[in-house]
Amino acid sequence: MTAEPAIAVTGLVKRFGERTVVDQVSIEVARGEIVGFLGPNGSGKTTTIRMMCGLLTPDEGEGRVLGHDILHDQRAIKREVGYMTQRFSFYEDLTIEENLQFVAGVFDLPREAVASTLVDLGLTSRKGQLAGSLSGGWKQRLALAACIMHRPKLLMLDEPTAGVDPKARREFWDEIHQRAAEGLTVLVSTHYMDEAERCHRINYISYGKLITQGTVAEVVRDAGLTTMVLEGPRIAEAQRMLRSMHGVEQVAPYGNSLHVIGRDGPAVRKAAQTAAEATQSKLLEAETSLEDVFIQLMGASQDNMQ
Ligand SMILES: Nc1ncnc2c1ncn2[C@@H]1O[C@H](COP(=O)(O)OP(=O)(O)OP(=O)(O)O)[C@@H](O)[C@H]1O
After folding, report:
1. What does pTM read for this prediction?
2. Which ipTM did the prediction report?
3. Ligand 1 in reach of 45 Cβ (< 6 A)
4. Is 50's C-beta closer than 6 angstroms to any atom of ligand 1?
5. Best probe residue, ligand 1, of 43, 51, 83, 157 (max atoms within 8 Å of C-beta)
6. Domains of the chain, start order
7. Which ranges of 212-264 would DSSP assign to H, the alpha helix?
């Protein structure tokens, strides 16, 4: 028998007034999986997360989170989920330890929970430091400590690393992977491509609609894009030429090279070759990056809105 998924929701809809901000979103997440949630600002990620956490009731749709019905067992879901909001906050004039003691009180946890969480997240040596004086990376570690202290089975992280430096982000992700290996399920929203690539699977949402889902490799493959790369001293000239050429949907400079992208492979190759010859640039075919795919998806969904 296979274990019930940590998240299995179908057809979620949420309207605020006349606006449908989440439109028929279905997501399944297996236990122990790390799943990314991506999409432009305002596309409905936070609203979807809140419906799955038991904080918002969907207008339509149904499903189960950790085996509990999202429409009727919201209290049970809230007890078993750790939710790290986008702008997590704590008492800046309390120490790390005092902040965690406060959270322990809210969840009615024994005092030992604070000590073990401090050890668990490597916060013991800083436990007496005021939360307000911590750097971004340590603040985020404290926020993670606060949302896993009650030992949730599922973590919902809403842009947990926004504004945190790359080293702290790497450490944060190492921590998340370690916990997933121990059985914790994680759903994480992010705007960072490197973070998306650290997820087992990703979901991409735009204007409230789920546009694509799968492993990074599947999402890249399903986009069906061809990427050609031009290199040389005259790529600015090549860029101007390529913008109006048939089949070219994206032209993006990366340092000394130029990425030329489109869905019509033969047309993209032909355009890139013409521009490469005209500007004596070196030409090669490259793998399409996840970022290129997302830019394409954003453009496509904007077109759908017109
Ligand atoms: N309580 C609310 N009342 C009215 N509109 C809301 C409410 N909550 C969210 N919205 C709107 O719903 C849309 C989706 O917002 P949401 O925060 O879910 O997007 P998001 O994908 O998480 O965005 P971001 O990446 O910027 O965090 C936005 O246009 C937002 O303004």
Report:
1. 0.89
2. 0.94
3. yes
4. no
5. 43
6. 7-219 (3.40.50.300), 225-287 (3.30.70.100)
7. 216-223, 235-243
